[in-house]
């Protein structure tokens, strides 16, 4: 191995690695890149002696004054780091495994790039201190029950119906701003209803449906991506390609009603735009200024509208989609308003991924693993693994029936 590679500091390799692992143009997007960057930074701080126990001085010899380089790495270093992670009592067992995998993936890349001669992080002695997975089963993760799904969809449906009826039955002599306020309330309720129904019944991943600030390709579903007539929606799948997802019957009516109400200026508008006032105010002011409007004229235009969203619709100032975090906030608000009984160790609300897992439960029980895998856009093997608790329960029923039959003959 070239001496130049051995003498390279660890941190000097990070940017190239992250670009290779990142998403989008220039490799500057993606959740993996963000998480990997965080763990690499922690690792290099540990190798320098800035993390760990008080007596930990790092991997560089005490009589040498330099940053850690690749010549300092061997399987013993990765063994010590695995021991360091495992000794952090604030981390769950599977979290330790996850953090170590980030470092291990970088180590493998370094071998391919010529920085290291062997994949030290994957050697048995290096991984020995890592704890076993904590055994948490997918069945222990939140999945909306039928009762919870019905309670939430019923709540948002009633709320949207009331808001739309209030808006559409206003007297003709209602003041303009009052009409706008009623329309805004109806739009927000209709958007929330459509979002809940899509999450509840399509089993589409929330990251495929909404905007991910860390991945420029995930800009959120637009109206041009939806065909209500065909009952389909194009989404950017987890496997890094566009694909059609099904829109079952319960989803069509909420989407159609919402589309009629919002009447997007173009098909490129997001289906689920943000309603955040600060974001919309900044966006409207900036876009109208770019179009040549004077600041005082912009202020006058904004004063004519109860909300900047309504001005954005009028002037075709396209807002961003809500983010995945935004969806979680919406579901927290709606779960509280619907007073849904939720007993889960991690989430005190109906989380977005729970809608997908809930549909998975329904499909596996009703049609089996093969059909469920197609609908969930997963392999049958993965679906069997994630919903193994269903098969275990069914086998338990079979065993009980067999015991009853045998015991009855005794």
Automatic annotation (TrEMBL):
What the entry lists under PROSITE patterns is as follows: CB
Q: Extract one GO BP annotation from the record.
A: DNA recombination
Boundaries of each Core-binding (CB) domain copy?
5-111
InterPro entries per record: CB (IPR044068), DNA_brk_join_enz (IPR011010), Integrase-like_cat_sf (IPR013762), Integrase_recombinase_N (IPR010998), SAM-like_dom (IPR025269), Tyrosine_recombinase_XerCD (IPR050090)
Q: Which UniProt keywords apply?
A: DNA integration, DNA recombination, DNA-binding
One GO term in the molecular function aspect is:
DNA binding
Full protein name? Site-specific integrase
Organism (species): Haloarcula limicola
